[in-house]
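so ive been stuck on this for like two days lol. basically i have the seq below and the ligand is zinc ion, smiles is in there too. i just want the complex predicted, nothing fancy, no docking runs or whatever. if the output looks off dont worry ill sanity check it later, just need somthing to start from for the group meeting slides
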Amino acid sequence: MTMKVGRLHRIRLGNEEVSYLLRRSPRRRTVGLKIDHTGLTVSVPARTPQRAWESILLEKSGWVLDKLEAMRARSVPAFNWRDGEWLPFLGSPIELVVEHGTPRARPALGDGQLRVALPDPSDTAALETRIVQWYRREALEFFQHRVALYARQLGVSVSRLGLSSARTRWGSCTSGGSIRLNWRLIKAPPSIIDYVVIHELAHLVELNHSPSFWQIVAQLCPEYAVQRALLKEQGAHYHRF
Ligand SMILES: [Zn+2]
């Protein structure tokens, strides 16, 4: 993916926090909105004040949200459960190798490959079950380490850590200190996982999204706005399976 030049901004449109890239151009005369597979880009004439393009975004929020949703859905092809496919894991692709044989205790990861043995390698349902089980185990183990690390730094205690598979949420927490993280997050780079972990842990201090909440998040994750935008952008890919 090529990086676009510009600054990342955020705005609340309806129920959604939308990240967008702002580009200032001396040659532009009007504010332009563009939505493609990388998300929303707002191009403005050189000295446009923020409230000017923000009011346009708010006015066109219905259109922007529909278009973003359609773009996310369209850009994600269905996943094929078969040998040779690429699986996302901690931000890197690993190759799925399906072998004929008695199932091992667990699929084995090494040399950029995940090897899975099945009595019938063409049994896609069995393959999916075994891989998802593997992901969930890896996820829980990884999350436990990160939650312990950041809970210590924030001085909060977590009563319970569990996995979720919610379609729309990456994490949740209760005032009692129980945290749930989506197992699919293990597909994302550690920097994104850390952001979600820190976000949920910060809720144990501030159970809202107030400026003081974001200050706590920023202490441990100064780049949180970037990680948040990346998760929004790539989230649909993590939901392929
Ligand atoms: Zn939150």
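DSSP finds six helices and eleven strands in the chain. The domain at 86-238 is CATH 3.30.2010.10 (Zincin-like).
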